[in-house]
């Protein structure tokens, strides 16, 4: 099948019914815009490479996320990109639940070609400059410590980067109800035990 990966077919078949036509359509558009792309699975989700990382998509229970690898470097004349914190829960195009949520085909194809042009030119996302300011000491709430220690996950947590630990800590502290906090604690423990960051699905 050329640059097609049969594992994609299995991934699409297992996706929720709402997601299947969207995944199929996105896959077709990607190959139409950039026929030289190659398919592969990373972190369990479909990824497309073209002279390096290119785009990716992932199906969840109620939405699909779609990401351009170099979105921070891309122009967005049509205003289709979602950025910032909201992106973490969706993707560059926001939460997609049907074909109607996608930009027009011609717009998406143009963006795909622009993304490919960045890879053609060998342009890379600049590395973040390290800050000279000392990092504030993270103070862990007692319930988080108890949950991690009780699950045998504290060692994994300590191995994580400062920013990764801070993301988990902020997420838990910002819970507005006790029920939400308990749910976030449980998710944190489960993910930390597997060595996963807070936003591992979108990395």
Task: Chart the SSEs and their pairings.
Elements lengths: L5 H9 L4 H15 L4 E5 L2 E5 L3 E7 L4 E5 L16 H4 L16 H16 L21 H9 L3 H6 L2 H12 L4 H16 L10
Antiparallel strand pairs: 1-2, 2-3, 3-4
Helix pairs in contact: 2-4, 5-8, 7-8
Verbal overview:
The longest helix has 16 residues, at 105-120. Helices cover 43% and strands 11% of the residues. The model has no long low-confidence stretch (mean pLDDT 89). It folds into two domains: 6-120, Aspartate Aminotransferase, domain 1; 142-202, no CATH class. It is α+β, with helices and mostly antiparallel strands. The chain is globular, with a radius of gyration of 19 Å.
Written as H for each helix and E for each strand, in order along the chain, the element string is: HHEEEEHHHHHH
Shape: globular
Sheet of most strands: 4 strands, antiparallel
Helix content: 40-55%
Structural class: alpha+beta
CATH architecture descriptor name of the largest domain: Alpha-Beta Complex
**Total of helices:** 8
Beta-strand level of the residues, as a percent range?
5-15%
**How widely separated are the two ends?**
28 Å
Mean pLDDT: 89
* Oligomer classification: single chain
Number of domains: 2
CATH class of the largest domain: Alpha Beta
Give the number of DSSP strands: 4
CATH topology of the largest domain: Aspartate Aminotransferase, domain 1
* Uncertain stretches of 5 or more adjacent residues: none
């Amino acid at each position: 099948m050329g640059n097609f990966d049969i594992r994609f077919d299995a991934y699409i078949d297992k996706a929720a019914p709402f997601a299947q036509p969207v995944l199929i359509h996105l896959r077709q558009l990607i190959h139409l815009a950039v026929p030289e792309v190659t398919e592969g699975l990373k972190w369990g989700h479909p990824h497309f490479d073209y002279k390096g990382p290119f785009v990716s998509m992932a199906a969840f229970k109620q939405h699909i996320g779609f990401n351009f690898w170099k979105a921070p470097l891309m122009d967005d004349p049509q205003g289709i990109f979602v950025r910032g914190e909201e992106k973490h829960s969706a993707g560059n195009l926001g939460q997609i639940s049907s074909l109607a949520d996608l930009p027009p085909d011609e717009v998406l194809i143009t963006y795909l070609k622009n993304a490919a042009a960045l890879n053609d030119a060998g342009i890379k996302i600049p590395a973040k400059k390290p800050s000279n300011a000392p990092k504030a000491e993270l103070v862990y709430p007692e319930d988080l410590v108890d949950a991690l220690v009780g699950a045998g996950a504290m060692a994994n947590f300590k191995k994580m980067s400062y920013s990764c630990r801070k993301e988990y800590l902020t997420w838990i502290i910002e819970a507005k109800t006790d029920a939400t906090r308990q749910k976030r604690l449980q998710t944190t423990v489960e993910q930390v035990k597997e060595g996963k960051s807070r936003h591992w699905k979108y990395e």
